[in-house]
Every structure is written in C-alpha cells, then in structure tokens.
From TrEMBL:
Protein name: Uncharacterized protein
Organism superkingdom: Eukaryota
InterPro entries membership: PIF1_helicase
Organism per entry: Paramuricea clavata (Red gorgonian)
C-alpha cells in the first residue's frame, strides 16, 4: 500500500510539473490527488468532516532542542529589526528557549532546563513568574487522603 501511494504521488508531482500552473496550484493538485486516493476509516472521516479535534490533551508540550549548537535550527529576527542593527552585529537570530534559559536571572539559577521550559515564561510584562494552570491541579487525586480498603 505504501509503494502504491509513493508511485501515485510521484506521478502526481510529474503531472503537476508538466502543467502551466503556479506552485500553489501544483501543491493543491498533488494534495487533492493524495486525499482522493487515501483510504480512511468512517470514524476518521466523520472527525474530519465535523472538524473535531483528533486528540485532546490537558498538558502543553514544549520542545527543547538539545542538538549540538551547530546543528540547531534558529529563527531569524524580522528584517525590519535586522536593518536597525549595526553592521558589526552578528546577532541575527531571535532568542529562543535555550538562550532565555542561559540568560535567566540569578534568582532562578537553581532551576533545571526541564522545569524552566515547563513552568517559567519570559514573555509579557511580568518576566519569569511561575505559571500555574488549573489543568495542573489534579482535583481527583486521593493519594493524600489515607484511603484504605
């Protein structure tokens, strides 16, 4: 089944390139060819048609890029900000999670990277305050109640 889909997409790419259409139209054509050829379950089709979420989570997920520094992909600062910088400046990358962690205040030096990513947010006016969300509090936790059978 996978080989059949690969051949189908390869042929769709070739057909799209032969046409006199824009890149946007080529991508649309390839996507339509794929969507019209994929078999999905009735349940998945209903979720797609009704635009229901395929998954739910009470937790946020934060990706921490722990690749070696030379292998990390970083976002560039906006062009308007780069144009305002001096010609000698080489800081064209916007600061990410790891940069903010390294530059955290002395009062937070004992915080691990995982705790930093999970609990501390440097955005907004109130910098570096620990966030507590309602979903982080388990109201059904009866571990401390001493319930015995």
């Amino acid at each position: 089944a996978q080989k059949g889909m690969s051949d189908l997409l390869r042929n769709a790419c070739a057909e799209a390139k032969e046409g006199n259409s824009t890149i946007k139209q080529q991508v649309r054509d390839i996507g339509n060819k794929f969507l019209n050829s994929v078999e999905i379950s009735a349940q998945e089709a209903v979720y797609i048609i009704l635009q229901l979420p395929m998954r739910k989570s009470s937790r946020n997920v934060v990706f921490i890029n722990t690749s070696p520094p030379n292998d990390r992909v970083e976002l560039l600062k906006p062009l308007s900000e780069i144009e305002k910088m001096s010609n000698e400046s080489e800081e064209i990358h916007s600061g990410g999670l790891l940069k903010r962690y390294v530059e955290r205040p002395d009062s937070l030096k004992n915080i691990t990277l995982a705790d930093w990513a999970a609990w501390y947010d440097s955005s907004g006016l109130n910098k570096y305050t620990k966030s507590v969300k309602k979903s982080d509090i388990d109201i059904n936790n009866d571990d401390d109640l001493g319930v015995q059978n």
